[in-house]
Structure formats: structure tokens, C-alpha cells
Amino acid sequence: SEKFKGVIVAMNSCYDAEGRVSPAAVKKLTRFLIDKGVNGLYVGGSTGEGLLQSVEERKLVLEAAIEASAGEVPIIAHVGALSTQDGIELAVHAEKAGAAALSAVAPFYYGYSEEAVGRHWSAIADSADLPFIIYHIPATTGFSLTKGLLKQLLANPKFIGIKTTTASTYELQQFKAMGGESFLMFNGPDEQYLAGRIMGADAGIGGTYGAMPELFVQLEKQYSAGRIEAARQVQFRINDIITDMLAVPIYAALKELVRRRGVDCGDVRAPLPKLSAAHAEQIDALHAKIELAVR
Ligand code: NAY
User: Fold this and answer.
1) Residue 198 confidence (pLDDT) above 80
2) Res. 268: pLDDT tops 80
3) Average pLDDT, the chain
4) What span, in angstroms and rounded, lies between the C-alpha atoms of 273 and 295?
5) What does the domain layout of the chain look like in residue ranges?
6) Does ligand 1 lie within 6 Å of residue 165's CB atom?
7) Superfamily of domain 6-294
């Protein structure tokens, strides 16, 4: 589908000073990102802290993002949850709210079989009339999508693609080959956006995009124009910034950097680590680097 192309920001969730979801701040962030030219938003994923929120809070965040997007870009709702029941409730809500697609991580904690994960994803996908993007992120869920399970899932046309968050672009290419040209691949690691695109990703979904949307928009523009060397230079510049982000608590850093760009989304939710005074210099340097790069 032409709908899901390019730069899709895994956006932060926004809280007020008391830590409650702030629909107003979510809307502000949504506008900030869309006005920078991104191609879509992914709500409630890893960066979006969806798994640290109640079902009701997740609905609030999604509704605010969809409302502010005003139909300008597609909004993908991450509805992954520990229980199939919660996933279904969120999926049904996402469809009503106007999301363009669903996505979900594998269920985790108990250590499920491929069969159980397949049933979970299928039940969620079948509960709404929306396309479904598998969120393959074995490092955090402990579950790794196999070609065998993918083959079974592909029998259901609801499964339109995979967000592949592994270091292997080979794996990405192999999944794409199984699904065929119209089966969408979403690059997970932001530091490999260009590599992912070259190996067959149709788009990227990433959290660090939020602090420097201009750079990813620029990277995508260079790549789609066939200017690989220019694209490489943008990716290298991005990676210099991401490397510094990875040296501090990344989700908290991302929120602080987004705040410095004008949108206060509050703190990350516990138990995600917060920034401390010890990180101040690194954050200042990061902010300066981003300002210089997006100028
Ligand atoms: C999501 O759901 O938030 C994402 O798609 C973001 C993917 C991020 N990966 C994780 C595990 O959070 O943006 C990346 C990642 O933070 C970045 O590549 C730095 O490694």
C-alpha cells in the first residue's frame, strides 16, 4: 500500500506534571511532527510507552493523535498487550477512533509457543477491519518471528507487513521475499534506516525520528531520489546523534530533546530510567548537535 511509506515516527506519549496523559501535549507533538513533513505516526509502541499505560490511557493518547492529525498522515495504533483480551479491546477502539492500521508486539512474560503467538496476533487482527503490522522485536519480547509462523499468518490478508526491529537486514529481506512485493517491511533500528530501505524496507518506524524529524525526512528524500551518497551522509550524521543518545537513558533523553524543541511531554513513566543531573552535559551537547544538524 502506498499509504505506508517513508518516515513514520514512533511518537512519545505525553504526560502532564502529575504524570497523567496530556491529550493537549499529544496533539501539539502530533502537529510538530506532521508539520516537519513526516509520512505517518506510530502511537503507543516502545517509544510511546504503551505497555506502561492502562488500556484507557492508551485510548486517550491514540484519540488525541488521530484528532490532531486531521487525516493528513496515516496513524498506526500499536495495540500489543499482555492479554489477547486487552489487545482486542484496543484494536476495536482503534478502528472506531480512525486509525489506519494496527500493530502489536508478541505477547510476553510466560514465554509462548509460536502457535500461541499466532493465535494472539490473529485474534487481534480479526477483531477489527484494519490492516495489521506484526511488530517483530525479539530483544524485548523474547519471541522471534520465524518464517514458518509468517507463512501461516500470510494466509490471512489482514497481515500486510512487519516492523522488523533486529540488526539483520538479511532477515528483513527474507521476510519481504516471503510476503511478496506488496507485503510491507518497516525498518526498526533508526541507525539502519538507509540499510533497511536498500534491502527492501518500504518505510521506517522509529523513535529517535521525533527529536530530529527533519533529518529523517531529508534522508528519505535523498534515498528516494537515488542519491545514495548524499543519503549516506545524512545517515552518518543521524548515527552520530543516536550514538550519543544510546549513552544515556534513551527514552528519557528523547523526551527531553523533544521538550527542547518545543513540546513538553513530561517524564518517562517508571520503571523507565529518568535522566539525572549527571546527564546534563550530554543532553546539552546532544541538543546542540541536533540544532546544528537541522538548521
Ligand atoms: C517503537 O515502537 O517505539 C519503535 O518503533 C521505535 C524503535 C526503537 N527501538 C526501540 C527498541 O525502542 O527507535 C528505535 C531505537 O530506539 C533506535 O533505533 C535507537 O537504537
Assistant:
1) yes
2) yes
3) 97
4) 30
5) 6-294
6) yes
7) Aldolase class I (3.20.20.70)
Cα(165) to ligand 1 centroid in Å equals: 8
The reply to whether 135 belongs to the active site is yes
**Which residue's C-alpha comes closest to atom 20 of ligand 1?**
189
Task: Decide: 202 in ligand 1 pocket, CB within 6 A.
Answer: no
**pLDDT for the residue numbered 1:** 61
Query: Ramachandran region of residue 132, left (φ > 0), alpha (ψ -120 to 50) or beta?
Result: beta
Is 5 annotated as catalytic?
no
Cα R_g (the chain), whole angstroms: 18
Q: What was the ipTM of the complex prediction?
A: 0.93
The verdict on the CB of residue 164 being under 6 Å from ligand 1 is no
Q: What is the pLDDT at residue 2?
A: 78
Q: What are 56-91's pLDDT values in tens digits?
A: 999 999 999 999 999 999 999 999 999 999 999 999
- Residue 284 clears pLDDT 70, i.e. is over it: yes
